[in-house]
Amino acid sequence: MKKHLMVSVILATILSFASSDARAQTITLEQLMSSPFPSELIASKRGDKVAWVFYSQGKRNIFVAEAPTLAARQLTHHDVEDGQDVTEIVFSPNGNTIAYVRGGNKNQNGEVANPTSDVAGAKQEVWTVDVRSGKMMRIGEGSSPMFSPNSEEVEYLRDGHIWGAPVVGGKERKLFEARGAVNSPEWSPDGSELAFSSARGDHSFIAIYNPRANHLRFLSPTVDRDIAPRWSPEGKRIAFIRLRNINDTFSIDRERLQPWSIQIVDAQSGNGKEIWHSGSNDNDSFFGGFGGNDVWQWVAGDRLLFMSERDDWAHIYSISSAGGALTALTPGDFEVENVAVSPDKSFVIIATNKNDIDRRHLWKVNVAGGAPEQITKGDGIEMYPVVCNNGRTIALLHSTARDPFMPFTISVDGSNMKALAPQALPRDFPSAQLVVPEQVIFKAADGLEIHGQLFKPKNASGKLAAIVFMHGGPMREMLLGWHYRDYYHNSYAMNQYLASRGYMVLSVNYRSGIGYGRAFRLAPHRGARGASEYQDIVAGAKYLQSRDDVDKKRIGLWGGSYGGYLTALGLARNSDIFAAGVDFHGVHDWSVNVAGLRVPTDTAERSRIARESSPIASVDKWRSPVLLIHGDDDRNVEFSQTVNLVRRLRAQNVEFEQIIYPDEIHELLLHGDWLRAYHATADFFDKHLK
Q: What mean pLDDT is predicted for residues 153-175?
């Protein structure tokens, strides 16, 4: 009798779970991944046109919208999914042409990413497209395109030199020969001279090339690193940033201090002066920003605009070209991520998490100072503003928890928001079926507050399997809605998909990410210095375990890059907590070189700590199954990180599966590769957590 009762209970439980899963599973991954992702939003100099790139199911093309209707139309037609990215789009000064880069950067072997394994190979090339006719033209190999002030020539960088070619097509030429690598070239306002930074290993100079005289001159050269020259509006002065030359060393738990100053020189004589220099505290160190719009430039009132973390948060400041006191434009406990300057240079539009820590909204700030004015608010996320229509309109990218990022316009006063390409979202995109993630805040073992986003399945009942997600970077942050970067736009889609399949998903904004201040981002003992952020992942798992609607024994975790590192660390250290994991191109051993990350391993003690902070140090305790996903042309995390981990997993008889993409890079370039990886992820969790 008891045996029959037990069988009945088990069958009822299985049928109940299957019924719940069937109800929840109404969304396909293909639908969630069908939304075109916008990027590279720009405006023409006159402000009458805006353009952007749409990545749509593997194809990358430029779209444009022109005043007065601002109706979006496709401009380029790269109609084959070949994995070649489209980036660095820029309008010519007259607005009639757009230059752009097609193809990615070269790896250490000089190879451009070629994820389709095309036997003809791949190149990184500069192209132009006529805004009126849509005629596309391949110009030459290179990157960082710019136009001459008369709009007749496009210039670009190749192998450290600057090249040029007619916009209408024709023979390319090297503008000049010079030692060092050309960086940050910028034409003078009248187009007569070209300023640039000449990188020469342990130092760099600011130089000016005069095409008419065919002559180079250097401005105030020193042993330091001079970067980012900016012409003054009248074209007689140049402002640049000087990074003091220091020893390239740092302590086990402290970033090196990078002192810097602002220099202004006469463009003809090269004579000038320092108008400001940083302090000696860690937070005075040179800060380049989070990769948003270019902040460093001249603005109204003969002032200069720049970004700093001198008050422990990423903020913008302005200073008179004559020197004097700084004006803090955005004080407070929040971070500025994007900045767009108005045509008259009198105000800036910023994207920030002011008053809404886990979202982004737009604010208006006067460059001379004063209280910021909020433009957008609510449950949406607004990013990458550009100012157009003589300063009256802002183009931006906008999303919500259910609606993916799309280009919009809005009046500067916050009214009249309109979609630029409403027809771009597929009709069967399941916005209404998505869940709205909840903000959750929990404490790590050391008492630090950690923010997360909780995806609760609709119509779920009983105790659910749960999954912890970690972003990469680590200088990233997940938000309460669709993400503004394509990699995490995909991750958000995957978390929604897992929720639709009945999983409780917790996305954790662990320490060393952005959005919560410099002290949080540069937390002590993080990463190779002691893996202090791992306690935030454990805290997230314990939060899930504390919920009555979560099965404590069915908790998994997944993430990519740095999130892959934390996935592997969780499985290696705590297979008792994490029953399964999916590791996308993660770091597994800090004691060897990791591309793009500064790892303190220059002494035996630091190397020991780095290794102890690595998953391989605890692989003997690894019991839970793992799915490993990696492209073998990864330029961010060496493929050898996964090769070496697999050797150890085999030695420990740990169950693992693998998906290896020949010729793919870190941010998978082919839409089909994302779909395959995510389908495999969902199937893997179904196999081990249900």
A: 94
Whether the per-residue pLDDT at 78 is higher than 50: the answer is: yes
Close Cβ partners of 56 (under 8 Å, ≥ 6 residues apart): 36, 37, 424
Q: Which pLDDT value is given to residue 682?
A: 98
Are residues 9 and 64 both part of a single domain? no
Average pLDDT, the chain: 93
Of the candidates 356, 349, 677, 633, the residue with the CA atom closest to the CA atom of residue 487: 677
| Inter-residue contact 39 to 52 (CB < 8 Å) | yes
Q: Are residues 358 and 505 in the same domain?
A: no
Q: Each residue of 421-467: pLDDT tens digit?
A: 999 999 999 999 999 999 999 999 999 999 999 999 998 889 999 99
Q: How many beta carbons lie within 10 A of that of residue 159, not counting itself?
A: 11
Which amino acid, 601? T
When pLDDT is cut at 50, 70 and 90, the band that residue 8 belongs to is very low
Report the 10 Å Cβ neighbour count for 505.
27
214 CB-side CA count, 13 A: 4
Q: Is residue 18 part of a domain?
A: yes
Cβ atoms 396, 409 nearer than 8 A: yes
The overall pTM is greater than 0.85? yes
Looking at residue 289, its pLDDT comes to 77
Angle at which helices 562-573 and 534-545 pack, to 10 degrees?
A: 60
Question: Do 654 and 570 share a structural domain?
Answer: yes
Domains in the chain, number: 3
Helix (H, G, I), strand (E, B) or coil at 396: strand
366 with 502, same domain? Answer: no
Is residue 49 in a domain?
yes
Is 231 within a domain? Answer: no
pLDDT over threshold 80, residue 20: no
What CATH number should be reported for the domain holding residue 594? 3.40.50.1820
Tokens of 606: 């630091």
Phi, psi dihedral angles at 99 (to 5 degrees): -100, 150
Q: Tell how far CA 333 is from the center of its chain.
A: 22
Q: Which range of residues forms the domain containing residue 478? A: 2-32+440-689
Query: Residue 296: inside a domain, yes or no?
Result: no
- Evaluate the omega torsion of the peptide bond into residue 68 and state whether it is cis, within 30 degrees of 0: yes
Candidates 295, 366, 374, 354; CA nearest to 329 is 366
Q: Tokens at residue 418, please?
A: 């309109």
457 and 599 part of one domain: yes
Residues 393 and 539 in one domain: no
Residues in the chain: 690
Tokens representing 551 are: 């099965």
Question: Taking Cα atoms as reference points, which of 295, 300, 308, 313 lies closest to residue 368?
Answer: 300
